[in-house]
Design a protein that fits this description.
The protein is an alpha+beta fold and about 700 residues long. The chain contains 17 helices and 26 strands. Among the domains are: about 100 residues, Roll (PH-domain like); about 300 residues, Beta Barrel (Porin), CATH 2.40.160.
Length: about 700
């Protein structure tokens, strides 16, 4: 109690990947056991922007540096904070830990243990509240359904193998799901009555369940390290881990250089054997590869995803899958049935968002910062329609770690708008074909080239990085996206966590942006896609920003696929452009001068991307990697597609298990980790600056 002092001061608080770190004024209220924060010290007399209950919280200094620490509340909320130096961090951490311990112990002393009480969560809440249905006699122990098993005496516990660790991880995932359900059930209780969400015993239950899960995670990590240390030495130090083929000699398999001849398995198709082995020497290296756009040909692949027959035929499979899912369940590790897959990888889907390169290049042609921001918003909103293939909600392939996708677009310079008043170019299908043919005969000076590369940089969590550039116009975009899927009952939600950065080097401007959430609705009948959530686009240099809302359809009435937004100058708070409409149909742009422009997205010309033929692609490139799955889906052979898909996924699991055992990190090919994000290894803002410096030195 001698050290229970109220302290206050400025700390940096991490908000999200878009906003990043922000200075906030924090106050530790020891008497109430609260950590509060305000926008600044002057607003301290106002209502706090945020408050955390410290009873049952966990205060953890971060390993990433000497300044950062986290406050994990019993409710599951987390503050990631950063002090100015290590000394200040230690001061805050020690005071927070003392306050936390004091209030946690106070709850335990002042209240009887939970086991002496029996109550019903369902009887206190609404009958319609999800996740609160339980029998009156069910107490906290039976709610978790915990079983205790004794080992036979005299028997030695065997050393856990990787498969057992995987099983443990799955059981822990289930326990984490149950713990989240418990917290949700408690928070659904009324704030007044016989049993409330603020009941001291329930607060203690929330705190101890959170602490238990944290402890279990720490123990599991120790088991992993112990097993890895026991297995150390099974491979030479410094071995480069690539795709694992269990039936070949590891010593030969991991040699870079000459291709290896692998024994064939007679009982498997040749295509499956190819997926489970590596015969190409170029796959044994992670060196970046320069793709020559001249080797790429206009894409003739046109896979439409409007076939509803498979969904109707496979309803029993969907029902079986739904029976195993729970509300809010993370679907990252759930294997979904093959028939709901699109015939393309997620990496290629990101490329399809660039199908209007004329609008992308036209951004930098804006003569003022206002025009350039408006052009970016126009391009951004027109990208989602072509990114989705057809009306049915199907899922792209989950990229394999290390998978890449390359393509490019060639755009005649005459088709790129020179001023913001220009209308979007609209061509009929016959005109578009003529354009494509003309491009082949044009000289290099007559068109712009936009190059695109994407890579799956992480498996857990699943993170993709993609990068596009137009060297002639000195502009590029870099983004990383973590797709997080959750089961929501009769729909599936996908959160696109990440950040994009558009760089216009000619103007020295950078635009940060995020992506909306996606939802697959009506998954038991005819599934369809809608977008939802608020996204922001910001340019710090010019002070212009855009706020865009993707509206989900209300339960009764309302339009589908509605989007609204506005562009404003932050310094004057002046709105310079408003937009409304549907992101897959017609958009209406209203400018500050009173002019209005309508864009029919269904009539916008689409520039086909250019890709290398399969025989020239590397074995890690999306189309070659998934070619047998794609061919089987085109033929309607779901069983065969599932077999090929399983072979790829099993190969990835084997390789991931071996990396964990040998403590060998995965090495990416094109993207480097910087902070919380991923950046292309040779972005234009680096290579362009280097070239300019070299030219200056020469002069």
């Amino acid at each position: 109690s001698d050290h229970m002092e109220n302290i206050c001061g400025y700390l940096m608080k991490y908000t999200n990947l878009v906003t990043g770190w922000q200075y906030r004024f924090f106050v530790l209220n020891n008497d109430a056991g609260l950590l509060e924060y305000f926008v600044n010290e002057q607003s301290r007399h106002l209502k706090p922007r945020g408050t955390l209950q410290l009873a049952g919280a966990v205060i953890s200094p971060s390993d990433e540096d000497s300044h950062t620490f986290t406050v994990n509340a019993a409710s599951g909320e987390q503050y990631k904070l950063r002090a100015t130096d290590a000394k200040e961090r230690q001061h805050w951490v020690s005071r927070l830990q003392i306050c936390t311990q004091h209030h946690t112990e106070a709850i335990g002393k002042n209240n009887p243990p939970l086991k002496s009480r029996s109550f019903s969560l369902a009887s206190q809440g609404s009958a319609n509240s999800p996740g609160v249905q339980r029998r009156p006699s069910q107490n906290a122990v039976s709610f978790f359904n915990v079983g205790h098993h004794r080992l036979p005496t005299g028997k030695r516990v065997p050393i856990m193998q990787p498969d057992h660790l995987v099983d443990v991880r799955e059981m822990m995932s289930q326990a984490e799901g149950q713990q989240r359900d418990l917290i949700r059930s408690i928070e659904c209780l009324p704030v007044s009555g016989h049993l409330t969400s603020l009941d001291q015993d329930l607060l203690m239950l929330k705190a101890t369940s959170m602490a238990t899960m944290n402890c279990l995670n720490d123990c599991f990590h120790i088991l992993q390290l112990q097993h890895a240390s026991q297995q150390k030495g099974s491979l030479p130090a410094g071995t480069a881990i690539s795709w694992l083929e269990p039936k070949i000699s590891l010593a030969n398999h991991f040699k870079n250089g000459a291709a290896q001849n692998f024994p064939a398995e007679i009982n498997k198709p040749a295509s499956v054997r190819e997926e489970q082995s590596i015969a190409e020497p170029c796959q044994l290296t992670r060196e970046p590869e320069e793709i020559n756009p001249d080797e790429e040909l206009e894409d003739i692949c046109d896979d439409k995803e409007d076939d509803l027959g498979a969904v109707e035929e496979q309803r029993s499979v969907i029902l079986h899958l739904l029976s195993q899912l729970k509300l809010g369940m993370d679907l990252t590790r759930v294997v979904l049935p093959t028939f709901i897959l699109e015939k393309r990888s997620l990496l290629e889907m990101y490329a399809d968002f660039m199908s209007h390169p004329d609008l992308f290049i036209a951004i930098t042609n804006g003569t003022t910062p206002e025009e350039r921001m408006i052009r970016f918003v126009e391009y951004y909103l027109t990208s989602f329609h072509e990114g989705r293939k057809g009306a049915i909600a199907k899922k792209p392939y989950n990229p394999i770690i290390g998978e890449t996708f390359h393509c490019s677009w060639r755009m005649p310079k005459s088709d790129v708008a020179a001023d913001v008043g220009s209308n979007f170019s609209v061509h009929s299908p016959s005109e578009q074909v003529t354009l494509s043919k003309d491009i082949e005969g044009q000289t290099e000076l007559d068109y712009y080239t936009v190059k695109f590369v994407a890579e799956q940089v992480s498996h857990h969590p699943p993170v993709s990085g993609f990068y596009a550039e137009c060297v002639e116009r000195k502009m590029c975009v870099n983004a990383h996206v973590w797709t997080k899927s959750k089961f929501l009952g009769m729909s599936i939600g996908v959160t696109m966590i990440g950040e994009g950065l558009l760089s216009l080097l000619e103007h020295g401007e950078e635009y940060t942006f995020s992506l909306p959430c996606a939802y697959a609705r009506s998954i038991l009948t005819v599934p369809w896609v809608e977008l939802g959530g608020k996204v922001n686009i910001n340019c710090a240099k010019t002070g212009y920003s855009a706020s865009i809302n993707f509206h989900t359809k209300p339960f009764y009435g309302g339009k589908l696929h509605r989007v609204t937004g506005e562009v404003k100058q932050n310094m004057t708070n002046t709105v310079v452009c408003r937009v409304q409409g549907e992101w897959n149909s017609v958009l209406e742009f209203t400018y500050s001068n009173g002019e209005t422009k309508y864009v029919d997205l269904t009539k916008l010309s689409v520039t086909r991307k250019r890709v290398r033929p399969l025989e020239k692609q590397g074995p890690f490139e999306s189309r070659r990697l998934w070619q047998h799955v794609t061919e089987s889906l085109r033929d309607g052979d779901i069983d065969k597609a599932t077999e090929h898909k399983r072979a790829l996924e099993e190969r990835q699991r084997n390789e991931e298990r071996l990396r964990a055992e040998t403590e060998t990190p995965w090495c990416t090919k094109y993207f480097l980790k910087e902070g919380d994000g991923w950046v292309y290894h040779k972005p234009l803002w680096k290579t362009g600056s280097a070239a300019q410096t070299q030219q200056t030195d020469t002069n």
